[in-house]
């Protein structure tokens, strides 16, 4: 509940601002709903639910106005007017936001008092300097080691991609098919050493075995007048490179433990896979979409007489990508760290909370809180963040494509929280009601997550992995 402070001078301002009429003036003092939940417990139609802020909201579509909530309210705060239930606090916080000097959050006040009490008890206790005790292991930072790319050095040749044994690296270059990417695979496969690192052919030693032509991933090698010709622009290309983050989220979501993270490295045992187990969840939640079913290797199930797919696209930390990137040294063994902080660009959309499979992020109005003891630094939150408020180490980005957003007026409390939190002017006030302007809406979901009444019918679609890069 929200309480009035001694600084309150205008006693009825908060009462007028409350969208659910849950504040009453008793003996000249504003008195609020206790949010005790007794109304929620006694509703026979389950028309009252508890929202993410700790408040209670009436679902008008389910409520039949029986009055059980009103009869069981211990403070007689609930009333029914024209069939609509009033007097239940949803903890929308409108009163405290409009009048911060006179209204405070009772939950936060209670926490402060508890902390003060605990500290006072510690002072009263005798000193325990000579008694062994555990120190507080406060986690201030989470880290992850992985093979990554220095994008300032990378020429996007795709050499690392070709040598990755599990296909965990995806390189996209802006050059058309038929133009050399300078990956030097032709040099690697030439049996006579006739191709050098600049893709210049020694005609005197070349035997026209055509190994280079077969190995070229971009079809940039041809034969003219019995000579090997390499179509090379000698220009530094641009593009993108996305590789497995070695975060271990796929191992956490693996149904049968065939994929594990052992000593910080991913390990896969395909013989554990069975016909009754799929890896759909792990594949669909891969932050950079490199995890997939292997198109080349299958496990034969003798009992079912069928071939079962295996996994590919996860980093095994072999380091081959770094070894073959010997010219520019763009692939390196790196360490990514995060202290849980986000930039001021955060719009409290809550997408990070929705996509976090470790339940490490909690959304508050105006900010998020990260439990670093749960965070595995998979960067799913950063990849999906529409305003890039969360740091990330990958070039992969999953952007919002389209969606649907509508306010159900039967549930809307007209508190205006959605209107105040929207950064894109997509919520408009029309005749004391709030509606969504679809032309301005980016489907970030800030309004939906902030709504204490769950009045939004909301859906969003992200671009797929190819469009997202």
Please characterize this protein's 3D structure:
This protein has 469 residues and is α+β, with helices and mostly antiparallel strands. Helices cover 20% and strands 25% of the residues. A two-stranded antiparallel sheet has the order 1-8.
The quaternary organization reads as: single chain
Question: Can you summarize the main beta sheet?
Answer: 2 strands, antiparallel
Give the N-terminus to C-terminus distance in angstroms: 46 Å
Beta-strand percentage?
Answer: 15-25%
Spatial order of the strands forming the largest sheet = 1-8
Shape descriptor: elongated
The average pLDDT value, as a whole number, equals 87
If helices are DSSP runs of H or I spanning 4 or more residues, what is the number of helices?
16
